[in-house]
Every structure is written in structure tokens, then in C-alpha cells.
Amino acid sequence: MRVLFVCTGNICRSPSAERLLLAYARAEGIDLSGRVSSAGVRAVIGSAMEPTAADVLTRLGGDPSGFTARMFTPALARDADLVLTMTERQRDRVLAEAPRAMRRTFTFVEAARLVAATGASDVATLAAARTTHRATASPEDVQDPMGREPAVFERVGAELADLTTRILPLLRAV
């Protein structure tokens, strides 16, 4: 399974989620090397991770080294088996540019919620669950910590770590 995380600048949330998923999956005996990536809808192309986000990621068990931001393209969504965005707006942007990715594109919060509600172990089951397990709260967004105090980065990092742990059952069958 190829997983693509999408956020705005691709220097904070999506690379954190990418690197957390790699680390947590490896700890569970799941090798996702070369199958997890990230991009930004307004990427700071070529940049390393934002330093505070990188520090938080390291404390959560991820490795920021060697990361380079890149721009989201429709081809990235077409090539992914699962696209996880940080906000509903980003999900809408992905789907506007790659409409055929609809059945495999979710917000990260939505995917974690659906896995928990259904025990889904594949993307098709996850997509089918959308119709019967609608969100009760909206929006299903992960806050952007850019330009905020370190405590916001810590909260966002903790949320990403929790969401990552919650979607691992979806990847165990890989």
C-alpha cells in the first residue's frame, strides 16, 4: 500500500505524519519503506521540516532527517492507494485536481475515525464506511501550527501520533 499525506506547506504536519507512520509501522513489524510520502498544496519546495515540528517529531519517535518538501500533483494522488489530508479543504483540493482518487482520499481524522468505528482493514471497506459513519462534528481538521507557539506544535504532534496509531490496523493487512 502506498500512502500519501497532504498538508499546506509540506514542512510540518504531512511530513510529521509521514515519518511517524514509518516509525510506528516499523515498530509493529510493518515495512512501509518507500511507500509513504507527503506533499503540500502550497509546498515550500525543497525545504527541510520546520525546526519546531522536527523537534516534536523526534521526541515522538520519528526521524526528520533527509526530508525535502514537495508540491502536490494529481499524479501523486493517482499513484497512492490511500491519500490522507490534514484538512477538509485540502481533501477538496486533492479531489478537484484528482477526482478519480475519491474512494481513497480522506482527511486523516476521518480515516482514523472510520477505522476505529468499523475495524476496516482495507481502503475499500474504509470508503464504504463513509456512507454509514458520518462525522458528528465538523470540520475534521488537524490544526496548522505554523507561526504559533511551541505548545501548539506539541499538541499537533500528539494528535498526529494518536491518529497514526489509530490507522495502523488498516496497514497491518498490507
From TrEMBL:
GO terms for molecular function: protein tyrosine phosphatase activity. The keyword Metal-binding does not apply. SUPFAM superfamilies: Phosphotyrosine protein phosphatases I (SSF52788). The active site is at C7, R13. Keywords: Hydrolase, Protein phosphatase. Pfam families: LMWPc. Residues 1-173 form the Phosphotyrosine protein phosphatase I domain. InterPro entries: LMW_PTPase (IPR050438), Ptyr_pPase (IPR023485), Ptyr_pPase_sf (IPR036196), Tyr_phospatase_low_mol_wt (IPR017867). Belongs to the low molecular weight phosphotyrosine protein phosphatase family. This is Protein-tyrosine-phosphatase. It comes from Rhodococcus rhodnii LMG 5362.
